[in-house]
Amino acid sequence: MGKKKRFLSVLLYVIFLIIVIEGSARIAFLMPEVSSGLWEDEDYWWRRMWVQRHQNSGNEIFYKFDIYDPSKGWISKPNLRDMKVFGNKVLNTNSKGFRGKKDYSYDKDQNRVRILIFGDSFTFGDEVSDNETYSYYLQEMLPNIEVINMGVHGYGHDQMLILLREEGIRYKPDIVIIGFLPMDMSRNLLRFRDYAKPKFIFDDGTLKTVGVPVPSPDYILKWDWATLKIFHIYSIFRHRYMESTGLLKKEQEEITAAILNEIIKVTDNINAVPVFVYLPSGNEITDKTRLTQDERFFFSMCQTNNKAKCFSLRPYFSEKITKGAAFNVHGHWGPEGHLAAADAIKRYLIEGGYVVLP
After folding, report:
1. Torsion of CA 316, 300, 118, 289, to 10 degrees
2. Which of 17, 53, 283, 333 sits between 20 and 30 A of 1, alpha carbons compared?
3. Residue 168 and residue 116: Cα distance in Å, rounded?
4. Based on C-alpha coordinates, what's the Rg of the chain?
């Protein structure tokens, strides 16, 4: 057999092998008992879940109040009025899609402290009404300041940074608060979660954004059939390997540290104070461990960059528990958790001299 024939034989064999493996992967994902065991917190799994959810419900993102955004992936729809969400809760958004009815001018009152709060669903207020979020309570407790809730459910720190750059700095804040949850660190490695999203990578030691503009829902649906499922399988098992070796945690911390440092830099450039607030969730709320591993990473940000201020809400929640308070440790906080968070933030800001009571 000549060289040309041998090459064609090998090529045909490789093509046949790829077809067999790809076909097997597609069949595996169609079998619930198999696909359910392949769950991992990685891009391809979230993409598959979005496609299935969209086909079943028609939702472009996760909730009906979400809308596609080309630079951040998604954001809340603007100008919603008294929308029933999370059962019997109420959602309103302003003209920018931020929670609450009130619109804010970019030109702030120079005699009034303005605070922007960024975060994920805990800050946005999943499972509570507008007047039950910690941003709302903080505004009630400190009526002489202005609090703008810029939280968006499902966001990673990467999307918070983009939102700060694009919109936050235009409000000329005095204080920028980041509601930090450890779960958001894993989101910083994803290009798909509630929907396709941007991602930061290191390029010659500096942060570079990839995946923008974020593809539209129509584009994802149109071309989903063409994505090779063998890459999905590879991604799943790579994720499992990285997690088992500790490399995934290291990668999460490295990119998160870079993103948070960039948030500090952007905030400092507009002469505002960056404040990172560790938000406890789940069993952390009642865990009396002095410091968790995630908290140690969290506080290291302020140890390496003294321009940022860091504090954890866990001691404040523990203090409330000793006085008889009860908090939801399954899913998101209820109103009691938001009220405790607002009280803790108020105390921290006053004791630190960042705000003054009238």
Report:
1. -30
2. 17
3. 7
4. 23
Spacing of C-alpha 99 from chain mean position: 16
Distance CA 191, CA 199 (A): 6
HSE at residue 279, side-chain half, CA atoms within 13 A, is 28
DSSP string, 39-66: --SSHHHHHHHHHHHHHHH--SSSSTTE
User: Other CB atoms closer than 10 Å to residue 24's CB: what's the count?
Assistant: 13
pLDDT by residue (tens digit) across 12-60?
877 877 788 778 777 877 777 767 777 788 998 899 889 988 888 877 8
Predicted confidence (pLDDT) per residue in 139-196, tens digit:
999 999 999 999 999 999 999 999 999 999 999 999 999 999 999 999 999 999 999 9
Q: Is the pTM of the predicted complex or chain greater than 0.90?
A: yes
DSSP E strand stretches across the chain: 66-69, 73-76, 83-85, 89-91, 114-118, 146-149, 175-180, 199-203, 206-210, 273-278, 309-312
Residue 141 CA to residue 151 CA, distance in Å, equals: 19
Which amino acid appears at position 151 of this protein?
G
CB neighbours of residue 167 within 10 Å: 17
Sole residue written with tokens 């999203």: 197
Neighbours of 340 (CB within 10 A): 23
Q: How far apart are the first and last CA of the chain?
A: 92
Please name the amino acid found at residue 39: W
CA dihedral for 277, 279, 284, 285, sign (positive or negative): positive
CB contact set of 181 (below 8 Å; sequence gap of 6+): 119, 120, 122, 279, 281
Sign for the CA dihedral angle at 132, 134, 139, 140 comes to positive
DSSP classification of residue 87? T
Which residue shows structure tokens 């140890």?
303
In what helix (H) or strand (E) does residue 124 lie, and over which residues does it extend? helix 121-124
Length of the chain: 358
Residues 6+ apart with CB under 8 A from 110: none
